[in-house]
Amino acid sequence: MFEKKPSLKSRIAEGLKPTPLKKRITFSLSKMKVQLRRLDNTLHQLENRDKRLYDKCVKTLSEKNTAAATMYANECVEIRKIARMTLASQLALERVTLRLETVREFGDIAFNMNQAAKVVSLIKDNLSNIIPEVASKLDEVNDSLQDLIVEVGEATEGSLTMASSGEDAEKVLKEATVLAEQKLKDSFPELPAIPTEEATSERTAK
């Protein structure tokens, strides 16, 4: 259910005795992995719904009901758009978690943390209209990453790395989208060709 926000007392305690950096990165990673599982569950639900609608599309097409077949096919197209965006977000978020795990173990925090935050922010924006609950949690993760960036001094040199980090973040998401499209071709069968009403009328007339 809903997670409680830190109390004023806990925030004051955090200010007086901050949690070690590695532990805070671990906490952010844990929250991201929860969202990864949610995205995975969403994908399974989309696949199951697409299969049901695909079967209905094929059945109604075999019954010469092109209107119903078109309706089911169009719904499949919309589901696959959402699935592509969801899978791309999942793949990009997986890359972020791997990067943060590397950061946690080997350092190079300033630049890599900024890149990770940018990717999370882009994913959050993409999911805001289709899976708002995940987008909301990623917004919290992004806030945590931004706090860490400030803590390690990134705020003072952000102007030097912000542009390249933004470009890298967009590149990560584009690469994830291409990979998602390839993976979905294996998961979702190609939709059958549905004749237009004109073609159906011509065949009936003959």
Topology:
Elements lengths: L7 H9 L4 H42 L3 H41 L2 H19 L4 H20 L2 H34 L9 H9 L1
Helix pairs in contact: 2-3, 2-5, 3-4, 3-6, 4-5, 4-6
Summarize the model shown.
The chain is 84% helix and 0% strand.
* Number of structurally distinct domains: 1
Would you state the CATH class?
Mainly Alpha
Main pleated-sheet profile:
none
Radius of gyration: 23 Å
Morphology call: elongated
CATH architecture group name:
Up-down Bundle
Q: What can you tell me about this protein's structure?
A:
- With 206 residues, the chain is mainly α.
- The protein is built from 7 helices and no strands.
Which structural traits does this protein have?
206 residues; 7 helices; elongated; mainly alpha; disordered N terminus; Ferritin
